[in-house]
Amino acid sequence: MPAYQAMENMPVVDEDSQDTRTALMMRNLPNDYTRNMVLELLDSMGFQGCYDFFYLPMDFQRGSGLGYAFVNFVTHAVAENARQVLQGFKTWKVRSQKILEVSWSGFSQGLGANIERYQNSSVWHSSVPEEFKPLLFVHGVPMAFPPPTKVIKQPKLKLMQQQSQEVAIVATPPTPWERIMKTISVINSHDIEQIFSHARNTLSSNLTFLVTGVTEQLRNVGQVCNFHKQFHGAIPDISLDLEHISVSDKISDTMAWRVTCTGTQMKRFLPFLPIGARASFALEVKVKQSKEGKPVDITWNFSSASTTAAEDSLDEKELSPNELLHRRGECKPCAYFAFRADGCRAGADCEFCHLCTKSQARGKKKAKGKMLKTEELAVATVAA
User: Fold this and answer.
1) Per-residue pLDDT tens for 148-183?
2) Mean pLDDT of 203-208
3) Which of 163, 208, 280, 298 is deepest in the core (most CB within 10 A)?
4) Yes or no: is domain 176-312 CATH 3.40.50.1460?
5) 44 DSSP assignment
6) pTM of whole model > 0.70?
């Protein structure tokens, strides 16, 4: 029996439930993980027979995963349980420091929507390896995907003859949607070398990159890489959760996407964020791409979430003067507390900050040293 007919016998979402979402997006998967390895992970965590759709997008050039996957569960309750159980998983079968992040899919919700999304996809062309294709299940048993309703075109892949006479598949440049998902995935990986590699491979050599209110306009890939290094240094636990992607109706080569960011700013970088307090904020990105499909004009615009701002305002009323100075990044770290094994003997009576971490204290010490050198140089110049 075809899967799309057998699904009629599967459990349905409780009609009394206000939330009917069933599709999850798994991010930060090791790129070496295959389709079967992710399915084994789901089954080992107790979800065998609980999902009816799965898809792991692949990098055709390298034959590896793009670091994210989509899975649709049979009910919202099961999906919610999976979201909580799988979140934070890191015991991989391959060497990787990635931490799994699971969120509701912002693209297709429900079995029917996912079937419709991929039914006429080029992944069903006979030239595409079987392990690169989506899967349907009924009670844990793989079933046939509904037949395409359109003629399936061969993916735009070129064959390149290698010196060893082996034929390799070389992929065309990623679509804007694939590039955005890859960008989010590598940022969430916290692997700075992977972030640099992604920037070099996807960005145009002649570009403009502006982070409103944070940096001046950047004009080459090296400067963009340096921005990412500072960004992750300031917010080492940064996590991006996609909200939506939109394409301009008037300008065909322009698109925008928005994510919710969560993280703890450890040193001053984003002016509106507190120091040492976990916060949620928004990032809106506008991208204009060249005829070759590479981004040439990028604008990042960070903004504080209204709910978070309200909560911060309420919290500040309950903070002590020292806690308030620390949150605003205006505190002076206590060197004894940060660097001495026995801490500060003054305890709560110390006039300096005991909330700063060792790295924060070290960073502020360096900044103070630079400022003093600048002042000394200015005085020397005037005296001369």
Assistant:
1) 888 878 776 543 333 333 334 444 556 777 788 888
2) 85
3) 298
4) no
5) I
6) no
Cβ contact 306:275 at 8 Å: no
Q: Please tell me the distance from the alpha carbon of residue 133 to that of residue 106, in angstroms, as a whole number.
A: 20
- 174 within 8 A of 184, measured Cβ to Cβ: no
Q: Where are the alpha helices (DSSP H) in 241-357?
A: 306-316, 321-327, 335-339
Phi and psi at 369, nearest 5°, equal -60, -45
Q: Check residue 94 and give its pLDDT.
A: 81
- Cα-based distances in Å from 384 to 362, 370, 371, 373, 378: 33, 21, 20, 16, 10
Question: Which residue is associated with the tokens 């500060």?
Answer: 344
Q: What is the mean pLDDT of the chain?
A: 78
CATH of 3-148, one of 3.30.70.330, 1.10.4030.10, 3.40.47.10, 3.30.565.10: 3.30.70.330
Contacts of 212 (CB under 8 A, 6+ apart): 299, 300, 301, 302
- Give residue 68's region: left, alpha or beta (phi > 0; psi -120 to 50): beta
User: How many angstroms separate the CA atoms of 337 and 244, rounded?
Assistant: 44
Task: Extract the tokens encoding 108.
Answer: 């297709």
Domain(s) of CATH 3.10.450.50: residues in the chain: 176-312
Tens of pLDDT, residue by residue over 345-375, are 777 778 888 777 666 677 677 767 777 777 7
Residues of the chain with CATH 3.30.70.330: 3-148
3-class secondary structure, 53: strand
3-state secondary structure of 361: helix
Dihedral sign for Cα atoms in the order 203, 62, 194, 69: positive
219 token code pair: 């004009």
R_g over Cα of the chain: 25
